[in-house]
Amino acid sequence: MDTYVRPDAEGRTETEHFDVLIVGAGLSGIGAAWHLQDRCPGKSYAILEGRAASGGTWDLFRYPGVRSDSDMYTLGYRFRPWKEAKAIADGPSILKYIREVASDHGIDKKIRFEHRVVGASWSTPDARWTVEAERGESKERVRFTCSFLWMCSGYYRTDAGYLPDFPGRERFKGEIVHPQKWTADIDYQGKKVVVIGSGATAVTLVPAMADSGAAHVTMLQRSPTYMAVRPSQDPFATKVRRRLPLSLAYIVTRWKNVLLGMYFYQMCKRKPEKVKSLLLGYVRQMLGADYDVERHFTPRYNPWDQRLCLVPDADFFRAIRQGKVTVVTDHIETFTETGIRLKSGAELAADMIVTATGLVLVPVGGARLTVDGQPVDLSKRFIYKGMMYSDVPNLASVFGYTNASWTLKADLVCEYVCRLLNHMDRHGYRQCTPHNGDPTLREEPWVNFSSGYIQRALAHQPKQGSKRPWKLYQNYALDLLSLRFGRLRDAMVFSR
Q1: Does 146 lie in the same domain as 192?
Q2: DSSP letter at 384?
Q3: Going by fewer Cβ within 10 Å, which terminus of the chain is more open, N or C?
Q4: pLDDT at residue 457 above 90?
């Protein structure tokens, strides 16, 4: 599968063509390939993967304790039951699951590794995309064409995470590591570690490092994050698996978790003070009456204005109680030779600093798009049903939920794209283009989240609209009805 151009009858070369090109061989890309094989079996396709291995996020991130922050009964594929005991799974287990799906269905044979897509150009007369990729370390430029382009390359830069310009950083004599760049040879045994950040990565890293050899771990945060404790194993799932066939038990548990998640999210929006009291009450119960929960665990925003951090089996709080972990809420004045000086005047000694400071978000994996020779500025486009872009033909991308498991939305996007492709085939259409013809449609931010990594990226992201089909409801039940059963002809323009 390593031939990129093939000779014609006269010995000339032509660009390899596919009905569908999938970009990315992570959780979304492997799921897209399965749906395509299952629902559109006549379509030729290939997967272009920028890295040397499949798995996406779950192969990229190697830091201690890396795990899901969603349960695997909803993060797992709808078509492939999760069989492991832990519902909150570690990264290697999730990676194994993704690769097993790819291997069992022959999807792995369709992957072109070390092909980083850098641009794609649409031609209306030809009704096809020309996709340009950089291959291997030499970054040799190779081209493919396709009738439909399916972007499953994630939402952040894989080559670098977000790193603020910390004053005095060059002075620090120890090691500074971003979790996105973690390698197997990083040694923190017996060291004093400061982890900067309070998001999901930090809340995972801190107890994992504390329990696996660090002398002490300090989590340094500017402001707190809401944390919710869940058992790593789902007692309900364990019970129903004893009584029902595996596939049925998986469906029942999946829907139980979907509905509970939706209920909790709605509670956060309708009764934020009540939910806040419940969450903080549990933290006080875990850490004791003398702990300063107000300072270190009480955010300035309401629950689900930012994503909640999951604490499986209360490991983070247990590490604090055992004296292995300290939480410090303050601002950085400067790095020093031996640690960090804070604006309060306090100093944190450190042998190693881990900058769990977030991701750099980019639409469609950072690829440049043009339509009929005109550059596409996605920040000026509306996003259609959370997956396509106004006036951009034959292109879909996968972006999961901010308030639930990524794969719940990814599976629905896959179903919809396959419905769309089959509809085009039945009617002889070559092109489908979302188009806004409603002058009353108001522009709204792509995601209504106050998180720093979202706010930094909003100016470069597409916009959602004030009404269907341009509005993102972040609601699985509504999306299921719309994407699995809803009309294909709404704001979608088909042509031959």
Answers
A1: no
A2: E
A3: C
A4: no
